[in-house]
C-alpha cells in the first residue's frame, strides 16, 4: 500500500520536517496540502509537484485524495482538524502539543481509538541520538534506581517582542507547550510516569500583535519540579529568551541514581556544535561518549518521525509516540498551569 498523505500547514517546519522527509519514501508521499497562505501554498505545490492544493482544511478532508493527514498548524487548530479527520476515517499524525488542554486531548485519543485509526504525535526529540542513548543507558541499568532527573531546553527566538502566535494566550501555550512538552515526554519516556508537579511560569517581554498593540501573553519560560511514580524527582527547565551567543539552542540532561550518573549536552551551531555524554558508573572515572554533530540525518534515512507514521499506516501497525503520549504530556502541562495559578503542588 502506498499511503496518500495530506499536509495541513505551510510553515518552514512543515516543509523541513514533512515535505522533505517524505520525498521518495517507499511507503507513501504527500499528495495534497491545505494552507491559508495561498502564495506559499502555490509555491510549495510547484516546488514538490503537488497538485491537490486547498485553502480550506475541510475541503481537503472531503476530497477523497488522502488516506492519512498531518496536522502541523498552530495549537488551537489541532483538536478541530483532528476530530474532523477522524470522523472521515483518516489516519492522523498531529504536531505537539496534542491540544490546548487535556480535555480536548482526551477527546482526540478516545475518538481515534474508537475509530480504529493509526495515530502519532511528532515528539521530534525522541529521535535525537543524545536522547536515544540516554534512554538506552537508563534501560540497561547504568544509573540503577533513578534518584534525580534534570532536563533543560533553551532557545532565544522570543527575546524580541515581535508577534509570535505561540506566545499569544489565545493561540498557544508558550514555552511550556512548545519546548516543555518535549521535555515532559522525554522524562516520561526515559524515567516513567510523573506523579506530581510544582511549576513556575513567567513571561519576560511585553508582547504585541502585528499592529503593535499589546496582547495577553503566555509564558516564555517555565520551570517544573516533578516527582515520578517509580520514585525520584526532577526539574524540567525551558526558555525561549535565554541568549545563545550564536547557537541555535542548548539541551542538557542529567540523570543520577543508585549506581552512577549520566550527563548529556547538545549545542547547535557555533564552535561547540555536537552531542556528548559523560557516564559515571559507581566510583569509576566518567566515560566520555561523542555522538557527533549530525542532528537530523536519521529522520531522512530511518523509520522515525513522519516516516514511522506513514509506514504504520501502510503496514497497519501502531508504534512510536502516539495520542496516549500526547494526552499524558498534556495532563502534565495542564497541571503545571494549575500549579502556577494556585501556588500549589498538583498531584496527577
Descriptive notes:
The protein is an alpha/beta fold. Helices cover 32% and strands 28% of the residues. It contains 10 helices and 15 strands. It has helices at residues 12-19, 38-48, 57-62, 78-87, 102-115, 129-139, 174-190, 297-301, 305-315, 323-342, and strands at residues 3-8, 28-34, 52-54, 68-71, 91-95, 119-122, 146-154, 194-202, 221-228, 233-239, 249-257, 260-268, 274-281, 287-292, 346-347. It has a 9-stranded mixed beta sheet with strand order 14-13-12-11-7-10-9-8-15. Strands 3-2-1-4-5-6 form a 6-stranded parallel beta sheet, with helices on both faces. α4 packs parallel to α5, α5 packs antiparallel against α10 (323-342) and α7 crosses α10. The mean pLDDT is 94.
Describe the structure in brief.
The chain has 348 residues and is α/β, with parallel strands linked by helices. Helix content is 32%, strand content 28%.
Key attributes of the depicted protein:
nine-stranded mixed β-sheet, 348 residues, alpha/beta
Give the strand tally.
15
Q: In percent, how much strand structure appears in the residues? A: 25-35%
Q: Mean pLDDT, rounded to whole units?
A: 94
Please count the helical segments: 10
Order of strands, widest sheet = 14-13-12-11-7-10-9-8-15
Helix content: 25-40%
Low-confidence stretches: none
Task: Say what oligomer this is.
Answer: single chain
Order of helices and strands: EHEHEHEHEHEHEHEEEEEEEHHHE
Main beta sheet: 9 strands, mixed
Outline, from the CA principal axes? globular
Derived structural class: alpha/beta
Distance between the termini: 41 Å
Question: Radius of gyration in whole Å, from Cα?
Answer: 20 Å
Amino acid at each position: 500500500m502506498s499511503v496518500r498523505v495530506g499536509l495541513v500547514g505551510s510553515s518552514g517546519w512543515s516543509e523541513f520536517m514533512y515535505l522533505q522527509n517524505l520525498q521518495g519514501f517507499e511507503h507513501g508521499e504527500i499528495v495534497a496540502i491545505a494552507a491559508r497562505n495561498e502564495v506559499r501554498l502555490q509555491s510549495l505545490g510547484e516546488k514538490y509537484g503537488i497538485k491537490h492544493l486547498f485553502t480550506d482544511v475541510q475541503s481537503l478532508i472531503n476530497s477523497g485524495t488522502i488516506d492519512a493527514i498531518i496536522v502541523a498548524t498552530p495549537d488551537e487548530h489541532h483538536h478541530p482538524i483532528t476530530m474532523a479527520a477522524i470522523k472521515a476515517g483518516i489516519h492522523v499524525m498531529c504536531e505537539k502539543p496534542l491540544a490546548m488542554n487535556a480535555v480536548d486531548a482526551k477527546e482526540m485519543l478516545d475518538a481515534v481509538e474508537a475509530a480504529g485509526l493509526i495515530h502519532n504525535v511528532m515528539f521530534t526529540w525522541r529521535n535525537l541520538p543524545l536522547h536515544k542513548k540516554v534512554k538506552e543507558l537508563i534501560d540497561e541499568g547504568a544509573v540503577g534506581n533513578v534518584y534525580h532527573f534534570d532536563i533543560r531546553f533553551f532557545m532565544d527566538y522570543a527575546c524580541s517582542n515581535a508577534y509570535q502566535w505561540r506566545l499569544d494566550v489565545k493561540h498557544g501555550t508558550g514555552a511550556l507547550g512548545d519546548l516543555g512538552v518535549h521535555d515532559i515526554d522525554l522524562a516520561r519516556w526515559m524515567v516513567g510516569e510523573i506523579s506530581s508537579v510544582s511549576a513556575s511560569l513567567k513571561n519576560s517581554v511585553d508582547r504585541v500583535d502585528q499592529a503593535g498593540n499589546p496582547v495577553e501573553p503566555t509564558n516564555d519560560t517555565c520551570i517544573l519540579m516533578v516527582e515520578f511514580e517509580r520514585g525520584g524527582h526532577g526539574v524540567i527547565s525551558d526558555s525561549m529568551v535565554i541568549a545563545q551567543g550564536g547557537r541555535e539552542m542548548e539541551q542538557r540532561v542529567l540523570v543520577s541514581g543508585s549506581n552512577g550518573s549520566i550527563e548529556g549536552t547538545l549545542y547547535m551551531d557555533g564552535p561547540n556544535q555536537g552531542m556528548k555524554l559523560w557516564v559515571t558508573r559507581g566510583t569509576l572515572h566518567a566515560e566520555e561518549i561523542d555522538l557527533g554533530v549530525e542532528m537530523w540525518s536519521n529522520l531522512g534515512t530511518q523509520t522515525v518521525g513522519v516516516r514511522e507514521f506513514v509506514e504504520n499506516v501502510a503496514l497497519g501497525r501502531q508504534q512510536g509516540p502516539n495520542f496516549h503520549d500526547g494526552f499524558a504530556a498534556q495532563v502534565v502541562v495542564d497541571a503545571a498551569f494549575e500549579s502556577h495559578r494556585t501556588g500549589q503542588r498538583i498531584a496527577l
